[in-house]
Recover the amino acids of this structure.
C-alpha cells in the first residue's frame, strides 16, 4: 500500500464520504464482459465480449448528454443502458434475441464485482463516516448492486434523486444537502479526475483512488491526481488508514 | 406470536417492503422521554418527561400541515421538530437553555430504541425483500437512526425525496418509482391506519402491525386492522413468517 501522494490527511475532516461506483468501487468491464460472454455462448454468437463491453460503456457519456441537453427528458440509467445496448447489438450484427433475454443482459450492470479492497475498505470507513454511493446509476440499480457486491452503504444517494447526471453540480450539492452537511464536510471519492474536478468546483473535498485496470490492460484510466484532488490513496483500505478510520 | 387476523399471505407477493418508522419500527415515546428526563436533570428543571414527549409529538401533524398548506416552504422534519420544541419549552415555562443544549435535545429523534422484534424481523425480511424506511423523517435523521438502532435498510426512502409529507400520495408513489416497481409490488408496513389507507388509495399493498404502547399505557394506538389492510401481523417476525421470508 504505497500512496502515490501522501498529503496531510488531518487537514481534511470529512463527516461523510460519497463514492463514484462504476470503475471506482466495482470493476464494470470484467463483470459486463463476463455477462456478455455467457450471453454469446447461450445464443451461439461470435463476438468479442471485452470489445462489446467497451462499446456499451462508450455510449454512456453521449447518452447522458442527451438528457443533459434536454433532447431526452429525465431518463434513468437503466433505460439509457438499454438504449445503448440496442445500438451496440445492431452494430455487432446481433438480432432476433427475445426481449426477456435482452432485459436480463441489461441487468448485468446490477451484478458487478467490487475491486478487492472495496468491501474491506468501505467496512472500515463506515466505522468513522457516513458512506454512500454518489453514482449516475439509478436507485434500484444501486440497491441490487449493493446486495450483489456486499457494499455496506448507509443510504443510496445519486443522480436520480436530483434528476441531474454528474458532473452537473446539482448532484454534488444535493448529496451535501441530503446529508445536512456543508459541501466541504463531504468527500467525493472517485477514480475519475473529471468527477473530482466537478465536486471540488462546488466545494466538496476530494479523494482520488486510481483504478488502472478500469478500461482493461490497454489503459485509458486516470493514473495521477491533479490539482483538484485533496487526498490520494492507493485503495480504499489506504484511504481508511489516512483518514484514521 | 398470534396474529389478530390470518389472511392468506400468498395472495400478496410484494417485492419490497417500506416501513413507517416513528411508532412502527421504533418506540419514540420512551426514548424521547428518557432524553427529556436527562435534559431536565441536567438543567434542574421540574417537568414530566412523558407529558413533554407527548406534547412534542402532538405538534408533529400540525407542523407538517403548515408545510402541506404552503404556509411554510419545504422544511425538513429536523427543523419542524425544533420549531415544535421551542414552543413546548415555552409552554412548559423553560427558558434560558443554551442553544447547543437545545440542538442536542432535538437530536433525541435520532436515538430511538427499536421495538424488540424490529431488528430480528427486518433482518429476516431483508433476506427475501428489499426493505426501506418510508418516513416523514429526513434522510440524515434516518441515517443516524439506522446506525443507532441497527436497522439493516437497503436504502433510505421517504418524504424528503419527494418534498411531500405522508399521507400525500407523492410519498408512496415516489417510493414505488424509485424502486422501479408497480405500486402493488410495494407493501407499506405501519402501525397507523391512516398511513395504510393513504398507501392503499394509490395502489400499494399494506400490512398492519399494532404497537399498542406507542402512546404509552393510556392508549390511543390503532389496535385493529380496517378494510385498507391486506395483511395483519403481530410483529415484524410474524410478518416475515407470513411472507415466507
Amino acid at each position: 500500500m504505497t500512496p502515490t501522494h501522501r498529503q496531510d490527511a488531518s487537514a481534511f475532516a470529512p463527516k461523510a464520504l460519497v463514492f463514484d461506483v462504476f470503475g471506482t468501487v466495482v470493476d464494470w468491464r470484467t463483470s459486463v464482459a463476463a455477462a456478455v460472454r455467457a450471453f454469446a455462448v447461450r445464443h451461439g454468437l461470435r463476438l468479442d465480449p471485452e470489445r462489446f463491453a467497451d462499446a456499451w460503456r462508450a455510449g454512456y457519456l453521449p447518452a447522458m448528454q442527451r438528457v443533459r441537453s434536454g433532447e431526452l427528458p429525465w431518463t434513468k440509467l437503466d433505460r439509457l443502458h438499454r438504449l445503448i445496448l440496442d445500438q451496440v447489438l445492431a452494430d455487432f450484427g446481433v438480432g432476433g434475441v427475445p426481449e426477456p433475454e435482452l432485459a436480463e443482459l441489461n441487468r448485468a450492470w446490477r451484478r458487478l464485482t467490487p475491486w478487492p479492497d472495496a468491501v474491506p475498505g468501505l467496512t472500515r470507513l463506515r466505522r468513522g463516516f457516513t458512506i454512500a454511493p454518489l453514482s449516475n446509476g439509478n436507485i434500484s440499480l444501486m440497491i441490487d448492486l449493493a446486495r450483489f457486491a456486499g457494499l455496506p452503504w448507509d443510504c443510496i444517494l445519486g443522480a436520480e434523486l436530483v434528476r441531474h447526471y454528474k458532473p452537473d453540480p446539482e448532484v454534488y450539492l444535493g448529496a451535501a444537502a441530503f446529508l445536512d452537511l456543508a459541501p466541504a464536510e463531504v468527500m467525493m471519492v472517485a477514480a475519475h479526475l473529471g468527477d473530482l474536478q466537478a465536486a471540488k468546483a462546488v466545494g466538496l473535498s476530494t479523494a482520488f483512488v486510481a483504478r488502472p485496470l478500469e478500461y482493461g490492460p490497454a489503459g485509458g484510466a486516470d493514473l495521477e491526481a491533479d490539482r483538484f484532488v485533496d487526498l490520494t490513496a492507493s485503495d480504499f483500505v489506504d484511504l481508511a488508514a489516512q483518514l484514521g478510520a
About this structure: DSSP finds eleven helices and eight strands in chain A. The longest strand of chain A covers residues 130-135. Chain A touches chain B through 20 residues (CB under 8 Å). The beta strands of chain A are 16-19, 26-27, 113-114, 130-135, 157-158, 186-190, 205-209, 231-233.
